[in-house]
From TrEMBL:
The keyword Signal applies. InterPro entries: CUB_dom (IPR000859), EGF (IPR000742), EGF-like_Ca-bd_dom (IPR001881), EGF-type_Asp/Asn_hydroxyl_site (IPR000152), EGF_Ca-bd_CS (IPR018097), Growth_fac_rcpt_cys_sf (IPR009030), NOTCH1_EGF-like (IPR049883), SCUB_EGF-like_domain (IPR052071). Residues 482-594 form the CUB domain. Disulfide bonds join 5-15. Keywords: Disulfide bond, EGF-like domain, Repeat, Signal. GO terms for cellular component: cell surface; extracellular space. The gene is Scube1_1. Pfam families: CUB, EGF_CA, Ephrin_rec_like. This is SCUB1 protein. It comes from Nicator chloris. GO terms for molecular function: calcium ion binding. GO terms for biological process: signal transduction. Residues 1-39 form the EGF-like domain. SUPFAM superfamilies: Growth factor receptor domain, Spermadhesin, CUB domain.
Amino acid sequence: DIDECSFERTCDHTCINYPGSFECLCHKGYTLYGLTHCGDIDECSISNGSCDFGCLNTMGSYECVCPPGKKLHWNKKDCVETVKCLPNAKPAPKAQLVCSKTGGIESCFLSCPSNTLFVPDSENSYTLSCGVPVQQGKAQPRRNSTLPSCSDSLAPPIKQKARFKIKDAKCHLRPRSKEKTKDSGKQAVSDNCQVTFVNLKCDSSKKKRRGRKSPSKEVSHITAEFEVEMKSEEVSDTCNIDCVRKRMEQKLQTAIKTLRKSINKQQFYIQFSGTEYEVAQKPAKATEGHEACSTGQVLQDGKCVTCSTGTFYSGEHNQCVPCSPGTFQDTEGQLTCEPCPSNDGQGVAGARNVSECGGKLNLIIKALGQCSPGHYSSDGFKPCTVCPLGTYQPEPGRTLCFPCGGGLVTKYEGAVSFQDCETKVHCSPGHYYNSTTHRCIRCPVGTYQPEFGQNYCITCPGNTSTDFDGSTNVTHCKNQHCGGELGDYTGYIESPNYPGDYPANVECIWNINPPPKRRILIVVPEIFLPIEDECGDVLVMRKSASPTSITTYETCQTYERPIAFTSRSRKLWIQFKSNEGNSGKGFQVPYVTYDEDYQQLIEDIVRDGRLYASENHQEILKDKKLIKALFDVLAHPQNYFKYTAQESKEMFPRSFIKLLRSKVSRFLRPYK
């Protein structure tokens, strides 16, 4: 058995080896195309992602969005009216920017009691949001508020953006020592600014110091966006709306000035679940205590593991702690838990979402159960109503049913699919039903539909498209990108979508320009071009783009027997063109550049018929591992000594070693 999974670039995501075969699998939210490649599924093209209003596709996932004045239901699909104040529900506590001054040194900390989101972007950067924006925009992290606001917003919020810089520090969110936290508690508060929403991004980059031998200097850049809500209760006879706005703008500006001073002296902290964190530390600080894993992770069995849903990372104890009763956490690697909508402090610990909160209200909801497909209710839970004629609902726990459209009725009440709608014509795969014209429309280029009687076409995954309209399968989706890696010593060229069939009407150009005094050796393990096309698909290699330049190789047919050859010119211009006719698997062609002193030896080897005579030798030229080893030694002859005699014996058949040895000996010692 050949373990294809041991080769480079076999599968984009996960490879499973079987006796005599292998299989590629994709991560959740991705689908397979071209046999080995994975592309993002556009869930929004599949019945609008089953979203009530809008759908936003993301890499590996998607989100439903709601119009102004509405918010997402707990099922994350339906839009419900925004309730300003639930009975007996506590309003969400606001974030607070608290600054103080002791001994001429300013110190600030940001308290984040609810609606927090921590996203580690990379090893040295992270994004942190706190609170809920009054008007959610695309640039801000989307997070549903779990606790309603019980005050009326008077006018658009006050927004301010500020940038800060910390020299010689890395963006690592680390807990403060207990001694320092105690000392900060003794300071007198000089300013307290309630903030509706904060979005903070910390990014580290190395700045080269003057002088060649000076080490790079770490600089942390912090970008902070603040949003403050204006409230009706603050307007009075002596201070109207404009007056309140100016006061609040001045207060926020003053707080940001103090914050800038505190950041410059590294005296800015963020508070989650009673623990204060430093936003960035100097290298000496970064090595203290909890340096083994990133924030939001703990060390288990020698590996860094992200804190799971239902828990939060406690910097004080450096461990994942279950959410306390009355709180929940539906995102991994967070620094706090969110309060439940009806927070009576009852229920179980470790709630992973709102429905698991465990309060009295939610315990009743769980006992009632969700509505089954074909049914709905005002909150998605029992008692439920059956979907009336002319509507359907394929999912459980929904607050609405989707209309068939165009005055169509369903075969029965409680329909669970558009296929239950009595359409005037029955659409075959590759088509979708238009409820306005009551006709079957061919799926446009770049989409497909494998099922009968559907009212949508699925967008091709990733950056792929189809050769024609009316496609019926994801295998018709092809990557148009010309593949390959062109290195000075080794590289390869690859037909688009390889090893899947290449697309129609594509043209690829590659240029191989080796370093001085080096020549090019090419191996074509196999090539699949349909011969019934009368040379419509062609691969050609020549000195330049000029049709009259020296040609090294040209073919428009399928060859399953491998061939090796040296370039007839020092540089190679390679072109692949396909027409609109039949397609094929194409090719993956590796090459190596070698010292021109070996030109005579290499040509002697590749022109010898014994190299291709036996099936064993042909398999060598098709084996990616063996070709890589041969090319490694050809590109850098000293690498021959990396391989022991036993390794060479196990890698290559005896006849092959014998053939090479005789030619190398004759080349190096011609007179012996």
